Amino acid sequence: MRQNVLILCTGNSCRSIIAEALINKELEGIEAYSSGVKPSGKVNPNAKRLLEEHGIWQDAYHSKTLDTLAHIAFDLVVTVCDHAKESCPIFEGSTKVIHMGFEDPDGKPYEAFEVTYEAIKTKLLPKIKKELSMKMNKSVFKTTEGVKINFTGVVAKEQIVKMVQNCSTGACECMSDATKKKITNMQVEGKDGEVALQLSGDISKEEIEKALAKSKVLNP
């Protein structure tokens, strides 16, 4: 399951563009985007040169406003300058916002861009990887037997077993009685961090997604 990260800066011309390119290159399963609270409308030439020399420049990278990314649900938002931190908008849902500031190389010699590049690579990337691994991710699939749910990230097998037990004993309030009657079997497999739940019966993916959203075990 791909996770989306937004890198937010002021002008969206240097630091955020560099971070966007580095994340997309180095962090598997993570898609990065960047934006500015007051975008300059152009990428700094030295930032572009730097990314070209590292072989990670893409023509799609450009300076833009946040509203152009309104269709994307972000798992994490990172502000990389103080102004962006102070001006950061409120994101709906469970989107986490963190701050890690980097010195602005704009207007400085090319060497300053290289310093910023290394700082982002060695400090920001590990932080993002850690933050996203701290989340529980759920993927729901329709199968020939019914529905399968894959849980990854911060999830304990016992947590899913407890959820199944609640459903079996009637203690579960997240699932409708009609859906419960359709389920003929529930089987938990895997280990902490990678748990699979197979539900057998004439049930739909949409029914299970609604139940998961209401689960008090998964959403205490």
Condensed summary:
The chain has helices spanning 15-26, 45-53, 82-87, 110-133, 157-169, 177-182, 205-214; strands at 3-9, 30-36, 76-79, 96-99, 136-142, 146-153, 183-191, 194-201.
How would you characterize this protein structure?
The structure is a single chain. By secondary structure, this protein is an alpha/beta fold. The chain has helices at residues 15-26, 45-53, 82-87, 110-133, 157-169, 177-182, 205-214, and strands at residues 3-9, 30-36, 76-79, 96-99, 136-142, 146-153, 183-191, 194-201. It has a 4-stranded parallel sheet with strand order 2-1-3-4. The two termini are 23 Å apart. The mean pLDDT is 90.
Taken from the alpha-carbon principal axes, the silhouette is elongated
Fold-level CATH name of the largest domain: Rossmann fold
The strand line-up of the biggest sheet is: 2-1-3-4
List the uncertain runs. Answer: none
Helix proportion of residues, in percent?
25-40%
Arithmetic mean of pLDDT? 90
How much strand content do the residues show? 15-25%
Distance between the termini: 23 Å
Helical stretch tally: 7
Radius of gyration: 21 Å
The largest sheet, given as strand count, sense and whether it forms a barrel, is: 4 strands, parallel
Q: Output the structural class.
A: alpha/beta
Assigned CATH architecture of the largest domain: 3-Layer(aba) Sandwich
Number of strands: 8
Tally of individual domains: 2
SSE topology sketch:
Elements (H helix, E strand, L loop, with lengths): L2 E7 L5 H12 L3 E7 L8 H9 L22 E4 L2 H6 L8 E4 L10 H24 L2 E7 L3 E8 L3 H13 L7 H6 E9 L2 E8 L3 H10 L6
Parallel strand pairs: 1-2, 1-3, 3-4
Antiparallel strand pairs: 5-6, 6-8, 7-8
Helix pairs in contact: 1-2, 1-4
